[in-house]
Amino acid sequence: MTQRWKPHVTVAAVIERDGRFLLVEERTPDGLQLNQPAGHLESGESLLEAVVRETREETARAFEPEALLGIYQARGNTPENQEVTYLRFAFVGRVGDPLAGQALDDGIVRTLWATPEQIQAERARHRSPLLMRCVDDYLRGQRYPLELIYTHAAPAAAPEGT
Fold first, then answer.
1. Which helix (H) or strand (E) holds 53?
2. How far is CA 74 from CA 63, 71, 78, 112, 130, in A?
3. pLDDT digits (tens, 9 = 90+) for 142-156
């Protein structure tokens, strides 16, 4: 039996303050790379829960989503050179001050605030080909209401013996 193909569902937070965007610098097999706070949707969580969790883990800040920026699809390769498709849900929102005692996720070296020009100048270090596209869409004013996303509650487990 052949294995069923599935895209990797990811979330990303696009956070702007005073003309600068919050990025993470992370250690990858390709060296130090830049990205928005982002990561994979985990079993049992909603897209909104995932982006709040990933942002907290990668920036040590609480994230409050305000809008859906867009849904993006990109192809790439794993370190083992296997083709992979990413389906990214990018959210616009705000962060608070760093959370006391909250460490950055494993592999995250630091967070930084960068202008669109600085982000563009570092294009060779973008972890995702979607980083600049998300910044550009944000600057164009693209926003969709969070109500566009609906998460169905998981059904309750049947009582034992029924």
1. helix 47-59
2. 25, 10, 13, 25, 7
3. 999 999 999 998 766
Q: Can you name the CATH fold of 8-146?
A: Nucleoside Triphosphate Pyrophosphohydrolase (3.90.79)
Tokens of 106: 């494993």
Query: Which tokens in the block code for residue 2?
Result: 């052949």
| Size of the chain, expressed as the number of residues it contains | 162
Per-residue pLDDT at 162 exceeds 60: no
pLDDT digits (tens, 9 = 90+) for 61-85: 999 999 999 999 999 877 678 889 9
Percent of the chain with pLDDT over 70: 93
Domain ranges for the chain, please list them: 8-146
pLDDT per residue as tens digits for the range 110-134: 999 999 999 999 999 999 999 999 9
The string of DSSP letters for 79-146 reads: TT--EEEEEEEEEEEEEEEEPTTPPPPTTEEEEEEE-HHHHHHTGGGBSSTTHHHHHHHHHTT--B-G
- Written as six digits, the tokens of 113 are 């605030």
